Structure formats: C-alpha cells, structure tokens
Amino acid sequence: MSINKFIKSECTQCGGHLEFPADAVGEVIDCPHCGQPTKLVATVLVAKLPRSRILSAGLMLMVLVLASGLAVFVFVRKPATAIRPVSSKLVTNQVATKSPRDEILTNEFSITAIKLEKTVGSSLMYVTGEVRNLSERQRFGVKLVLGLTDTNQVPVGEATDYHQVLEPRASWRFKALVLASKTASAHFDSVGETP
Ligand SMILES: [Zn+2]
Predict the structure, then answer these.
(1) What is the 24 CA–ligand 1 centroid distance (Å)?
(2) Whether the model pTM is above 0.85
(3) CATH architecture designation of domain 95-193
(4) Ligand 1 mean position to 27 CA, how many Å?
(5) CA of residue 100 to ligand 1 center, whole Å
(6) CA of residue 38 to ligand 1 center, whole Å
(7) Which of 17, 132, 142, 181 could disulfide-link to 163, CB 3.0 to 4.6 Å?
(8) Does the structure show a pLDDT above 50 at 46?
(9) Which pLDDT value is given to residue 75?
C-alpha cells in the first residue's frame, strides 16, 4: 500500500515540484529541476493533512450543528402539528346535554335547549340555551345558574348568566361562560329574579 502512496513536496533549494513514493521520505536526492541535493520531506503532506482534518472536523461539526438544529426544529415543530388534530376536534362542538325538546318549567320560566359549546380555536366554553318568561309581568335581574359536571358526572362548578329585564312572554338566549376546564356537561340548576 505504502509503495503506491506518493507524496507531493517541493525542492528545498528551488521550490520545484517533487513527487516521490512515501517510502523515500528523508532521502536526499538530486532535484530534477535544479540538480541540487534536496531532502525529500513530507512537509506539504504533513502540513496539509492536519489542516484537511481540521477542515473536515470543522465541516463535521457544522453538519452536526445543522443536524441538531434541524432536530430541534423538527422537535419543536412536531408537538405543534400534533396539537392541530386535537384542536380541530373542537370543531365538532355543541355537545347537547339534553335534547332540544327537553323543557324545564319552574317559577314561571321555561328553560330549553341547554347546550355546552366549545369555541373553535380557543379553550373557552359556554353554556347556551333559552329562558322564556312565561308570566304576564316583567322579570327583573333574572339570574340563571347551571351546574357543571366532568366526564364522570362529578360536579366541577357552575356557570351563571344574568339578564336585566325580561319582558312578559319574551325569551332570552343566554350564554354563560364556563370557567371549569374539565366541564363535560351542563344542566339546569336554578333561575330566578335577584333583588
Ligand atoms: Zn530544486
């Protein structure tokens, strides 16, 4: 192997180009260019090899940095894309807790169409529905309270909405903000006039 390996060097006298087998390093020859005796040194090779190694090491480092940067980029991007299907799932909102036909009659109020609505693109949830004043008189400061439960039917809080004046026979479409994030369903709790 080493017999076939040639070293490129320069004449120490004239700087002429020399090429010789690696085995001949250290020998003194007569330069083919100037005819003067010159020692075959591997300076060019010795000088170049570490530099090219440093260069390749540097390149390797750059590739590594780039690759790790890319890995970080991919790592950072992945969860974002993974979240997307979850949030798009929220598009299927309007989880009816009771069928629209269900009507609650209490205190001369009718409460219908109670729904838990998730807002697309946000974590906000509302309980919506309709409260009708069944009486022939104005109702003042009507406060509606809805009970909230999680997926295991465990109470997690309540949502309320308020309507200042509800005219006789008029209806009010309420929208109560849900603050308990675990809320999976909502049900009527109470409605009445507040003093
Ligand atoms: Zn020479």
Answers:
(1) 16
(2) no
(3) Sandwich (2.60)
(4) 14
(5) 103
(6) 7
(7) 142
(8) no
(9) 54
